[in-house]
Amino acid sequence: MRIRCSTVLLFAIxxxxxxxxxxxxxxxxxxxxxxxxxxxxxxxxxxxxxxxVFLRIADRRLxxxxxPAGPTGDTRFMKYGPLPTGSIIELLDDYRRAVEExxxxxxxxxxxxxxxxxxxxxxxxxxxxxxxQIGVLVTIKxxxxxxAFESFHRRAVEAANDLRDGARAALESAP
Length: 175
Known about the structure:
This protein is mainly α and 175 residues long. It is built from seven helices and no strands.
């Protein structure tokens, strides 16, 4: 009986590990920003400008997924350096991380300063940009399949929705 319970427990643990293997394998550790992006993040302190940097960082992952070889004549990305590279799953995870980091920065700013005109501007631009980026994420849905892709895509969409909805709620509740 003891061996049977241990076997069942081991089988259950292995089943959980194997079912989560695609997520664990695909999850990158460490820094997700390119060198150019890190330099911009370090240099820019005002929350309205900083939020623009993180919105562009997130958008660059979407561009890298949707059209990595397309024309990059748009000067808005020049100072960020080359587009990030990686699999679609890695880029979606990096997208989610950028959006979540922006949410943390917005929350921290509110805790420190309350609602300022700079924070209001950051929240307004975040809300508007997330509407656009959610639209892009919807188009990405058909580019791949499989449980790992679906999981990372869902997390990216959830992060974008959380940022948009949180920004709107903060704007509505602030005087």
